[in-house]
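Reading a protein record of the kind used here takes little practice once its layout is understood. An example of such a record is reproduced below.
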Amino acid sequence: MFGKIRVFLEMIKIEHTLFALPFAFMGMLLGSVVINGHLPSWAQAGWILLAMVGARSAAMGLNRLIDRYIDAKNPRTEKRAIPAGLLKTSEVIIFVAVFLGLFLWATFELSRFALTLFPVALVLIVAYSYTKRFTWLCHLVLGATIALAPLGGWAAVTDSFSWSSLVFYIAIAFWTAGFDVIYACDDIDFDRREGIYSIPSRFGLEKALKIAQGFHAVTAAGLILLAVISPLGWWYVAGVVIACSILFYQHRIVKPNDLSRVQTAFFTMNSWLSSIVFVFTLIDLVVKFW
């Protein structure tokens, strides 16, 4: 049983939750302080955590189901759980259903407004995996999906959106799209051979990395603008400066003629980025609240 659990955790890359979870909590904090005038409750934080676990686990399970035949052909992914025979398709379907149920339950407990957003999230979660079959804009679709985490965190505690929440949403959407473009560089030869759409396969490595830089420039601008239009102070600004430095370093270590550090840029750098921005935002808001 424990072996099977490890396979499921590996399938959904549970460690990659570090990408979006800090931003979901950050959306919750910002919405609660900016709109409600106080810090969120522990109960709200707990339900948002469960919503994130449910949504992300279901999304990864669906992606592995939908892409199982493509994964079986790709040397980089042929050892994933379904193509390798470690999990049955039926087992993954049950897994997805359970975690979609958890996601739905958590949104129901958070607020009625959050519940109305559930179908939107579900459509994007399902649609993303199909987009690389017909458009190189698939990276932006992924960004729009992942960025629902901070937007959902905001909506769950405020029952509303605002310009600040939308700016934050756009910043995270382009951050996700940018690192996904970098990650897709590893598959450029396979994607071209199999007719898979991606920015690297469409434009080549050099242009793809420049596009990723452009996406991350939008992220940096969005995070800076957030400081202007919301009551965030110098602690937050310090976190954004560190985050922008990480983005800059990320693009320094990945080059068209050297993709050996793509995994470092993809996982390590981005996990640090989201965690740092969240921690500095938390400090900023706690200092203001006290």
Notes: The mean pLDDT is 90. DSSP finds 15 helices and no strands in the chain. The domain at 2-289 is CATH 1.10.357.140 (Tetracycline Repressor; domain 2). The chain has one domain: 2-289.
